[in-house]
Here is the input.
Amino acid sequence: MGVVTIDGFVGESAKRLMRESLVWDIHGCMPLRPGDTEFLPQLERYRASGVNVCSLNIGFDVTPWQNAFLVVATFRKFIRDNPDMYLLVESVDDVATARASNRLGVFFDLEGGCALNDQIGMVEVYYRLGVRWMLFAYNKNNSLGGGCDDRDGGLTSFGREVLAEMRQVGMVVCCTHTGERTALEIMDLAGNPVIYSHSNPRALRDHYRNISDRAIRACAATAGVVSVVGISDFLGENDNRSERVADHIDYLVQLVGPEHVGLGLDYVFDEQELADYLKNNPQVFPPEKYSQGIKMVRPEQTPEIVDELLRRGYSELDLKKILGENHLRVARKVWH
Here is the structure.
C-alpha cells in the first residue's frame, strides 16, 4: 500500500527528513487474540513507511486482564522469530540498535489499570515483559482513577500506589482516555515526564476523548509529550486527512512548543476487531459519540504529514523532535 497525497507525491525534502530522523509512533493496535499472528506481518507497513519504533497495545480495560499475558507472549515470539526485521526494544540503546540495523523496534503498552488485577506487583511484571507505558483508566472509572467518559473522582489510594510503583520500575505514565481531574492529579504527583500517547486538543475538535488546553499545558510542565491520534472522529467530522493531523500538531506546537508534541496514530490493523469492540461494548464506546463511524490515519501517511508540516514552514530541527526525539528524551528520563 503506497503513500497517497493530494498532489500525487511526497516531496524529496520530506523523504530525506524521514530517512535522517528517528521516527517513533507511540501507539498502534494489533489484534488482541492470543496465538493469532495473521496481522503481525503488517508491522512491515510501519518500517516501509519510515517508522523506526512503535508501541503495540497488549490489552485495555475492556479485555480480561489475563488476556494481556497471552497476547504479549504471541507478540514477543513473533518478534523473536523474525530477528532480521524486528527488535524487541527493552532499553534506550535498543532504539538506536533497531534504527542502525534497519529493523523496526517494538515495545508494548497497556490501556488501563484493570490489567493489574489490583495487584501492585504486576507493574514490574509487565515492565519486564516489555511494557513501557500504561494509562490509568480507559474511558470509565476503575480502581486507579477516573475515565474521560465517567464521573471522575480523581486518583484513588491504589492509583497513587501504582503511580509511585511506575516511577520505581521505570514505566512511563500515560493520561490518554483518563479523566481530567485524575490526569491533573497524576501530573502533579508523577515526578517524571507524563505523556498523552494518543490524544488531540479539544479546542480543535470538541470530543470527550480529546483534552483541554489546561491538560496539555500540565503535561508539558512535566516535560512530557502529547501525541496526536489519527482516529477520524477525534480529528474532525470523520476526517482522516493528513492536513487535519497537521492542524492538530500545529495547534499543540503553538500552545506548548515543539518539544512536547509527538505521533501516536492509534492505527488498528484489524478493522473488523475494532468494529466488533465498538458494537459489543456500548457502555465504553457510546454509539451517539461514535456516530460518524471510524476512519484512521494509516502508517503510510506519516511522510505526507511531514510534507505538509514542511509546507507550513516547520524547521527540520523541530520536526525531528516531533517525529521521535521527544519520546526518546522521555524514555531516557524514565526507563530503567
Notes: The chain has one domain: 12-334. The chain has a mean pLDDT of 95. Residues 316-334 form the longest helix (19 residues). The beta strands are 24-29, 53-60, 86-88, 104-111, 131-135, 172-174, 194-196, 225-228, 261-263, 267-268.
